[in-house]
Amino acid sequence: MRENVFKILLVSVMAALILTSIAIADKIKEEFKEGIEQYDNGNYLDATETFSGLLEKGYRYQELYYNLGCAYFKAGSLGKAILNFNRALQLNPSDEDARINLEYARQFTIDKIEKPEKPFFVKAVNSIVNLFDLNTGLLAASSLIWLTCLFIAGIIWFKWRDSIVWYVLTILLILVVVSGFISYQQIRADVHFKAGVLIAKQADVHTGPGSDFPLQFTAHEGLEFQLEELREGYWRIQLENGVKGWVRQESVGVI
User: Fold this and answer.
1) Which of these, 202, 192, 198, 204, lies nearest to 246 by C-alpha position?
2) In the chain, is it the N or the C terminus that has fewer CB atoms within a 10 Å radius of its CB?
3) Containing H/E element for 239?
């Protein structure tokens, strides 16, 4: 009798959780659809509020960041548009629409930074590393490791000796090394490197963490940089040309 009651309660709880999940998913879709309609009707500020509301509720996905970037661009917030296009690409580096819109938005920035030319090898490695996001890269690496282990087990168990077996094993080992290198670079970048965008219309960049330090230059919205250290409400930033400085934390959006 008690077991039956327990089973009924368990099924009821599971059913309630499933129905709640479905209701939440439907509500998210409705809010997202509302934001799209607001954008299509030219109500760009309303669209930014709707999309931002979903972010505040903890929802993070590429399409949300992409559409928020489009809405901010149309609303005249160039810095926040660039920020959200970058966030969309961080979740899905292969999103061509986000990449095209990001490059287009960058044309309207005031601060043009001369980028040092990178060696061909470095550019090639960066292109390969940026093909996938971190989760996809780790999944691919772990899958290749398991596949290689199973293949080696098959060689030992079935005593495969054909030359093609060793060719396949060599290819698998090369792929494991390459995928491991890519995953290492992605993890290293995720842990040690943070990127940011200036979202304020303009902000003073000082030589130290405070307005008492000498002014280096005034930066304008949309400027992109690396974030090195947060101290006393100021980020120490580094531009692509190597110039460093300190800017107020509230003026910066972290990608």
Assistant:
1) 204
2) N
3) none
